[in-house]
Amino acid sequence: RQEHADEVPETLGQIRNREEGRTTRLERFPELGDFYNENDEFTASNADRNTHTDLVEGLEDWELAALQRAAADDDYVYFIDFSNIGGLVSPLPLNITNADGSVEFMMIPAEIWRRNSLAVTKMLIRDEPIVSIEVDPRRETADADFSNNHYPGRIDKSRIELYKQEDETRDLMSDMLRTLREAKGGTSDSANVPLEPASGNN
């Protein structure tokens, strides 16, 4: 909750109200508060607790033991959800970027889909925070849509934008065969550039 408050910028109205010493009606009359004033999106509900219970009950014995040990050691525990949109079962290659800038490559075997071929959850335990995860960074799988392979989400160029983008690849052969234009006020040294290897070391 505090991290969210730190990341979300204060609105202009909030800034001016604070500078002018204005208070909200709820601040003046606390008795007007209701359920939604006392709770927010970060409040753990019974539905959240049930989801957690289902998740824990679905862990293997060794996964549950690892989770309990991580909680005791105050490690970072992550539950990563994967969706098999195309239906083709395949391994999950991951690039995991840590807070210190290091990058770890992990290959999750295709057996992870053995219980559910449409959606799975992978638990990761780390001694430092994870800042980003990329699925299939080396384009090893038959994934046809790479736009949803990043966490946090990343905006990629569409195919139309890529098609319209100017080709920046240099065509050296075409450049060498182009007619040499004379400079203003003088003549060029040569009308042609021979297509022969340059002498000397490369």
List the helices and strands and how they pair.
Elements: H1 2-7, H2 12-19, H3 25-28, H4 35-38, H5 46-57, H6 61-73, E1 76-83, E2 92-98, E3 103-108, E4 119-126, E5 130-135, E6 150-151, H7 159-164, H8 172-177
Antiparallel strand pairs: 1-4, 2-3, 2-5, 5-6
Provide an overview of this structure.
The protein is an alpha+beta fold. The mean pLDDT is 83. It contains eight helices and six strands. Strand 2 (92-98) and strand 3 (103-108) form a beta hairpin. The chain has one domain. The chain has a four-stranded antiparallel β-sheet with strand order 3-2-5-6, with no helix packed on it. It has a two-stranded antiparallel ribbon with strand order 1-4. It is flat, with a radius of gyration of 29 Å.
Structure summarized in a few sentences:
This protein is of the alpha+beta class and 202 residues long. It is 29% helix and 18% strand. It has one domain.
The whole-angstrom Rg is 29 Å
Q: Indicate the proportion of strand residues.
A: 15-25%
Portion of residues in helices? 25-40%
Mean pLDDT comes to 83
Can you tell me the number of structural domains? 1
Q: What oligomeric state is this?
A: single chain
Protein structure class? alpha+beta
* Counted beta strands: 6
**H-E order:** HHHHHHEEEEEEHH
Strand order of the largest sheet: 3-2-5-6
Shape: flat
Low-confidence stretches are none
The first-to-last residue Cα distance is: 60 Å
